[in-house]
Amino acid sequence: MKNGKTNEVVDIKDFDEVLEYIGGWGPFQYLLTLIFFPFNIFLGYVLLSPILTLFTPPHWCLVPQLANLTREERKLLAIPQDTKVAGEFSKCSQYVVDWSKILSGNINQPDPSWSVGKCTDGWEYEIEDYHKSITTDFDWVCDDAWIPALSQTAFFFGAIPGMLILGWLSDTYGRLPTIIISNIIALVSGMATPFVAGHVAFIVLRFCMGLSFYTFYLVPYVLVMEYVEGSKRTLVGNLGLATCLTLSGVYQPWVMKFLGDWKLFNWIMFSQMGLIVIVPFILPESCRWLISKGEGDKSVKVMKKIAKMNKKEVPDRVYDSVLQMCLKQKQLNESMPSYTYLDLFKTPNMRKITILISILYMFVALEFDTTVRNISNLNFNIYMSFMISGALELPADLLSIIGLNHLGRRWSSSISLFACGITILPCAWLADHWEAQAVFAMTARFWATYALNTGMQFSVEVMPTQLRGQGTAFVNVMSMVSQMASPYIVYSSVISEKAPFIILGIIGIFAAIPGLFLPETADVKFPETLEDAEIFGKNDRFFWMPLCGSASRYKKQQNAQEVGSPTDNIAFSAL
Questions:
Q1: How far apart are CA 46 and CA 187, in angstroms?
Q2: At what angle do helices 215-226 and 146-173 cross, to 10 degrees?
Q3: How far apart (Å, rounded) are the C-alpha atoms in residues 30 and 149?
Q4: For residue 380, what pLDDT band results from cuts at 50, 70 and 90?
Q5: Which of 78, 407, 487, 554 could be stapled to 152 by a disulfide with Cβ–Cβ 3.0 to 4.6 Å?
Q6: pLDDT tens for residues 304-352?
Q7: Would you say 399 and 416 are in contact if contact means Cβ atoms under 8 Å apart?
Q8: Confidence check: pLDDT of 60 > 50
Q9: 182: buried, middle or exposed (CB in 10 Å: 19+, 13-18, 0-12)?
Q10: Please, are residues 369 and 486 in contact by the beta-carbon 8 Å criterion?
Q11: pLDDT tens-digit profile of 390-446?
């Protein structure tokens, strides 16, 4: 391809070359990045809001006969001391006596000989300093404390068929319809949840919400990355997380505290997803996907709009070459069967990539989700800990922009996960020192966020264009399987307050290994086909990272020529 002179013959081989003409970083990409920002806010609602809506404030057995006493008098007289936590009252038991006799006898101190039993008239909650949650509305505590954990498992379970179906839809019918469908599912589920009348309906709606997760965010992420030149991928992929997801995590707890009611909170947060109705009018279909389907006329139409917005003069012969390329691709598609999930395991290197990135992202997602939800096990104010945890997105995302470009994807995943593991472990023995425990837990949260950003970008980049939708869907399905364990790791604190931190520490340390054996995707163009994926990263040095320079990347100079450099490898194409 020659683009220095307009009279040269143009032979377009992939969309990467088209970007050189229409612009890979200009006003169009700026607008696309801004359009992507709201999806980062929505991610915060879907991912983080259940921590608040399912929050369990301090509680104890309700004893209606003592309603005329003050709260402290009721607790002191009717509730036994917690045998596991010194100075705390039991949450699930009460003294079982004839309270009319106790009151008539002016007794204001419990007798240790009184019999103790389960709560018989419900629970009393300390709402004044907290908020109404679905847990308080339906008394999902004590013997029913398993319901919130099960609802989160149902959420992740729903994501499995959702990812597989919507991932196939993304590759078959396009990115745009998938974005609309998945966000509408999240919108309807979120708005309907406050109307539930019991735990069965709630769990069903959590499953429905799970159908849209992670697709409602991931497909817009893929679409935006497919329009941006390689050097700006990390910036665009993490900028929305650094700003909008951080903002979402910072203001959600205070909105909930101000409103005081989870129902109103849910309606206000999820109604914002109604903005999805304007997306078809402002967001174009992926040109890369259109080309892969041989849709020449539609591709050229979008390219002309991009070129106009980026103020680029593009010779007609470039568009003619694109039309010819699309015609060849369409003929090829008609002569070949469509790709399926089985193709991820068809060839040796593709199979290795799929297995390793799946294992890595399973660990990453589990570590991240559990560190987020585990703030409920910290001896720290829920609103403040939620805000600090959310605010950590900003420095972690900004550092990941630098780290992914200089350390690469492999070493970024390894270092961040190992750091997460060794910083969360000490929390197991710091329960009596809440300040130190909070510092270590938030540090681990920081590294888990860095790891998630790495895993998210890595999982998209290692997949060839032909299977990118299904490949990323499969990887995320596996992450949903692992995240089913997240609520139970948090819930393991009822067995031992050390358990969640020890489990997270061990997972983080072992999770540092698999990413090191994947191809490094920094500073190279990516595979378009399965054939390209077979030689992807084969000649990279194990200890290489971008800060070492491209000259030292490959094992042998001649092999470097076979695989190609970031600038001249026509076998690969950037997202």
A1: 10
A2: 40
A3: 40
A4: confident
A5: 487
A6: 999 999 999 988 888 888 888 888 888 887 777 777 888 899 889 999 9
A7: no
A8: yes
A9: buried
A10: yes
A11: 888 889 888 988 998 899 999 999 999 999 999 999 999 988 888 898 899 989 999
Length of the chain: 575
Structure token pair of residue 45 = 């609602």
Digit-coded pLDDT (tens) for 535-556:
888 888 899 988 888 888 887 6
Q: Determine the Cα–Cα distance for residues 464 and 472; give it in Å rounded to an integer.
A: 10
Of 462, 451, 453, 452, which is closest to residue 353 (Cα–Cα)?
Answer: 462
Q: 478: closest CA among 313, 378, 358? A: 358
Q: Which of 72, 36, 360 is nearest to 222 (CA)?
A: 36
Residues 346-385 as b/e (b if ≥16 CB within 10 A, e otherwise) read eeebbeebbebbbbbbbbbbbbbbbbbbbbbbbebebbeb
Q: What ranges make up the beta strands (E) of 391-506?
A: none
Query: What is the biggest distance separating any 2 CA atoms in the chain, rounded to whole angstroms?
Result: 106
Using the 8-state DSSP alphabet, how is residue 244 labeled?
I
In whole angstroms, how far apart are CA 428 and each of 318, 380, 493, 497, 510? 62, 15, 10, 7, 18
d(CA 281, CA 104): 73
Rounded Cα distance, 287 and 296, in Å: 9
DSSP for 205-241?
Answer: HHHHHHHHTTHHHHHHHHHHHHTS-GGGHHHHHHHHI
Cα(82)–Cα(93) distance, rounded to whole angstroms? Answer: 9
Q: Which residue bears the tokens 């015609």?
A: 327
The beta-strand segments (E) located in 3-101 are 59-61, 93-95
The residue type found at 151 is: S
